[in-house]
């Protein structure tokens, strides 16, 4: 059975009718106007699905309602200036009405390219890096107090630098023992596997993944001959006269009692409990 194609709100069938898709739901034009449409700030009526909409700073107008607040000239397809929440055309904008550029303190008139940040406005060419003085314009920047920095100057002046490549860490960095790294630089010295979020071992300022540490660095247990990794089972180690054992491998050669953290006798490269040692 075919799924019903109805309006999400009134449940009227939509087959063969105009409809609007909103937030993943289908609705008829009547319900769109009633429940979904933005309200025009000028006429206070819904901006229907068949109407053209103009929006500016989270406010919405019918295109025919978007006019100069002084002369009522239509502005939907023209440059305009906003002053005290009023929309003004070029002719009705006086120098006194125009906001002042934070950089040069001259008026920003309708049609001028500008940059606005937290209620302050600049001519596009006046919005410059506080360090190198190059124009930031509409490019990316970093605010620092009352100053603004281009990406390059911010990296040079403020960003942490990776201890391996000495380049700035702009995102995705990690810290190990109070030292900053790029995630892609913090890798196993043998196989270059990324170590961020993984188990690893540090040996003389070199970092190894678990597999490479086992295969190339770890000491071999004198009992089972397998690597002593310090991970998982057998993380405790017994060391004696240059040899090492997993704690579970350190047992009496004769009776097999475990001798980790117990008294033992070392005889001819073998480990014995005191009782078995007396019988040698």
TrEMBL record:
One Pfam family matching this protein: LIM
Domain of life assignment: Eukaryota
Primary location recorded for the protein, binned into one broad class: cytoplasm
Gene3D superfamilies attached to this UniProt entry: Cysteine Rich Protein
GO aspect biological process, one term: muscle organ development
Residue ranges annotated for the LIM zinc-binding domain, each copy included: 38-98, 99-160, 161-218, 219-280
Subcellular location: Cytoplasm
Cited InterPro entries: Fhl1 (IPR042997), LIM_FHL1/2/3/5_N (IPR056807), Znf_LIM (IPR001781)
One GO MF term: zinc ion binding
GO annotations of cellular component type: cytoplasm
Keywords annotated in UniProt: Acetylation, Cytoplasm, Developmental protein, Differentiation, Isopeptide bond, LIM domain, Metal-binding, Repeat, Ubl conjugation, Zinc, Zinc-finger
Stated role: May have an involvement in muscle development or hypertrophy. Isoform 2 binds to RBP-J and plays a negative regulatory role in the RBP-J-mediated transcription in mammalian systems.
Protein name stated in the entry: Four and a half LIM domains protein 1
Gene responsible for this protein: FHL1
């Amino acid at each position: 059975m075919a799924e019903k194609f109805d309006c999400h709100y009134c449940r009227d069938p939509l087959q063969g009718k105009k409809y609007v898709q909103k937030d993943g739901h289908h609705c008829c034009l009547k319900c769109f106007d009633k429940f979904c449409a933005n309200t025009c700030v000028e006429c206070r009526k819904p901006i229907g699905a068949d109407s053209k909409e103009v929006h500016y700073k989270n406010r919405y107008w019918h295109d025919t309602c978007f006019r100069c607040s002084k002369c009522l000239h239509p502005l939907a397809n023209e440059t305009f200036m906003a002053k005290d929440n009023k929309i003004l055309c070029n002719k009705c904008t006086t120098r006194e009405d125009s906001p002042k550029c934070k950089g040069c303190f001259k008026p920003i008139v309708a049609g001028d390219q500008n940059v606005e940040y937290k209620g302050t406005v600049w001519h596009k060419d006046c919005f410059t890096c506080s360090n190198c003085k190059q124009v930031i314009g509409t490019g990316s920047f970093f605010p620092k107090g009352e100053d603004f920095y281009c990406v390059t100057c911010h990296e040079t002046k403020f960003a942490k630098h990776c201890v391996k490549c000495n380049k700035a860490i702009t995102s995705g960095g990690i810290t190990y023992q109070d030292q900053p790294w790029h995630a892609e630089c913090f890798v196993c010295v043998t196989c270059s596997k990324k170590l961020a979020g993984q188990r690893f071992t540090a040996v003389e300022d070199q970092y190894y993944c678990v597999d490479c540490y086992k295969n190339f660095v770890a000491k071999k247990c004198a009992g089972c001959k397998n690597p002593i990794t310090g991970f998982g089972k057998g993380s405790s180690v017994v060391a004696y006269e240059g040899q090492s054992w997993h704690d579970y491998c350190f047992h009496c050669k004769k009776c097999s009692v475990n001798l980790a953290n117990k008294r033992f006798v070392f005889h001819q490269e073998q480990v014995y409990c005191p009782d078995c040692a007396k019988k040698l």
